[in-house]
Design brief:
Blueprint (H helix, E strand, L loop, with lengths): L1 E6 L16 E4 L6 H7 L9 E4 L2 E3 L10 E5 L6
Parallel strand pairs: 1-5
Antiparallel strand pairs: 1-2, 3-4, 3-5
């Protein structure tokens, strides 16, 4: 199946986009989860903080479907 991925901020280095949030498509096996996607992109799990599927925050065990749009953000600090 194919899903569209948008990686933001420091996660962008794991994607195929030229800039933060640039969408790219990736192929995954049927029944893949967000965790599987993170692993396929070789993102260390502790570097993902918030993950969206079709605009809704989801946990890493969320099963993906053909055509889903996934967004991922790293932990953010500041003060």
């Amino acid at each position: 199946m194919h899903v569209t991925v948008k990686l933001y901020a420091t996660l962008n280095r794991y994607g195929l986009g030229e800039r933060s949030g640039a969408p790219f498509e990736i192929e995954l096996p049927e029944e893949a989860t967000l965790r599987d996607l993170v692993n396929q992109l070789t993102i260390p799990p502790e570097e993902t903080h918030i993950m969206f599927v079709n605009g809704i925050i989801q946990e890493s065990d969320c099963k993906l479907k053909e055509g889903d749009e996934v967004g991922m953000f790293p932990p953010v600090g500041g003060g």
